[in-house]
Structure formats: C-alpha cells, structure tokens
Amino acid sequence: MPNDRHLSTASPESMDTSTSNTAPRRVMYLENGIGYGGAAICLRHLVRNLDPQRYEALVVTGRDGPNYREIANEAKWQHIADRHLDVVGARRKLDAARWPDRLPGLRWLAGQVLARSDDLFNFLPFFFGLLWSALRYRPHLIHANNDTLCNRAILLVGRLLRIPSIAHIRGEAKGTPMLAATFKLPNYFVCVSNWISDDIGRHGVPQQKREVVYDGIALDDMNTEADGDKFRKTHGIPESAFAVGLVGLIIPWKGQELFLDAAARLLPKYPDIYMLMVGGTPDDCRPFEKELRERVGRESWGNRIRFTGHLNGMSEAYNGLDVPVSASTSPEPLGTMVIETMAMGRPLIAPNHGGGAEMNEHEKTALLFEPRNADSLAECIERLYLDRELGRRLGEAARAKALATFDVHTHAERIQAVYDRLLTGEIG
Question: Is the pTM of this model over 0.90?
Fold first, then answer.
C-alpha cells in the first residue's frame, strides 16, 4: 500500500484551472530513478523554491530511504514502492547463466517470463498506487522527473484522468521501441540541455513541444569555505597528496571502470596521487561495486583508491579534492556534479560529449577528454597534477559561469512559467 505521509485530499471545489483563482495549483511529481542522485537533488531544489502562492507540490518517489524521506521537510511526500520483485537481479543472473542456451529459444522464453513478471508484480501495483494517489490529491498538473519510459506509469495516469503532464528529460533517448511510443504520452517536454533537446527531436518530438531549462542549484548552499581537510582525514588522504575524485553514483555508465583504467596509468608513476570514487551505490548495482572493489584489491597500488559511499555534505568533498572528474561513458545530459563543481570553483575534468561539454569550453572552464578513452582522461589528470595554476584559473572561470547560469531561483521561475502556459492552453 502507498505510504500516505503528508498527503492531503483536495476538495472538488479547488479544481478550477483558471489562473485567476488565487488558490495554488497542485503539481504531482514523480521521482522514479535508479537511486538518490542528481535528478532527485535537482527536484528537491525546484520544489523548495516554488512560489507557494502559485504552486503546491506532492512528490512521489518509487524508492524509500532517509534521503527521500527528507523531501517531506520541503513538500508533501509519498512513497509508493515501484519494485516488489527483483527482476533486474533476475535478468542479471539470466544473462550470466548457461542453461538457457541448451535449447533454441529458451533464453528468449525466460526473458519473456521475466518481462511479464515485471509487468504483473511491479508495474501494475505501481500504476494503481499512482492512480489512487492522483484521485485523492487531484493534481492540476503532473511532472515526471525523468525519461518517459521509466515514468510511463504516471504519464498514463495523466492521460487516463486528462491531467496535463510534463516529462523532464535528463538522459539520452535510447532503448526499446516502447520508448518511442511513450514520447506520445506527455503534453510537453523540459530538457536539461540543448544536447538532450536535439536528441529527443531526432526521435520525433517536435520543437513546439520542448524547451531547454538548465538545472538550478542553491548556489548559496555551496560553501566555498567548507573544510576540505575534514573530508581528506575521513577518507585517509594525506595532506600532501593530490586527490582526484570521480563524483557520481556507482553505476556502470558513470565511468568507474574507465577511471580505474586511468588510475592504472597514473598511480605507478606518481606515488602521491590518490583516486576516489565519491558517491553511493544503488541496490541494483551492488554486484558492480563488488567487481570494482575486487579489481582494486588485485592491484599493488590499490591502497591509494578510496570508495567514500554516499555523502550528505558535498561542499567538503569538493574542497577536499584537487580535481573532481566526470567520466560518463554515455553522454551526460548535464550532470549535477558538473554544476556543483563549477559553482565551487573547482577545476573540472569531463568527457567531451553531452551536457558537460555544452556547459564548458576546453582549457577555459574545464579540461575535456576524449570520451571512453582512458589515456585521454589520464593525460588531463596529469596535466592538472603538473600545472596547479591551470587548475586555479579553470576553477575561477567555471565559478563565474555557474553563478551566471545555474541560479535555482531562475530555474524555478522558468519551470513555473512552463506550468502557467500549459495550464492556460498556450502550449501542449
């Protein structure tokens, strides 16, 4: 059953969608990502900065845990479990198993059984939980905080109840043919970068149904004076060491294996370089983290690689790192860590694709390396190791750009302007 914490039932009299009505319009948000990361953080920044005279938020999350529960301090919050059966883990075991190859078609059949089990035990309960919540909360607008496929349940609820919906696209449009079909569900699309907007345009979403709104963060909350030494002491980094940190959830496409490939090139050569993986691990990716740790354990230089786990105070982490790194092997739509690194005035290294490349100019605000190329990544790290003044200049220029581009108040106002236009029929 859904967790109804902080959920109130709206009266039918307040359902008028005319903007002349002084009652705030209700927005039902769904955050249904793989784990607590940049998308959830950006959503929290948004709902915290909505104009309460104009919009009221209910945030529904498919995952539970301390970080998600904290949302209840900023908006109405409800947890509806999106997973009762671990189909992801079962698929992983199926991919590794040999028995499905003993008979022609057996692997396909087993995959179909898992897919239908996912529909029956995960998707349908989640869908009906969302439907029940929408009937009770009676939102004027639905805002899906990620791609249309993983959020199809809430978008279908919107279609069924004739509630206008927005899909906030934060990733590359790749997947099954079903993904293209789900692009027909939202009334409008908000894209976190021009690269993402162009990408969904290539998949048939017309220009008049999409616009770019850069993510915003509370720049005032990014403490450029935070105690980086505390972070270093916590994770055993010597005061004189050069600390390089890959910041992001531990999931395969974030580039942790590429980061270790670069470490193999640098650590034997420079004994004072330490490399850290900064971020938590979603439950689905625990086996991947185990593989990474086992690889580190096999290396003679493995004692100079650290796993920090999830951190609540990122300002200390950024100041404790000499160089924050993004190494995503698939194009990052924008990346919260990119914004945060820039806002903190730290020298960023990022792949030359996706939103990170859109936001930065090579050798002006960041160093951009050839995507999926460990040699190129290692060369950028080595360059900042040997030239600390270059890192200082990059950080100063990046902070100036962040302050001009990623203010959370500007972000919230632009999103609310989209809501206004959608509810008055101007768009959608």
Answer: no
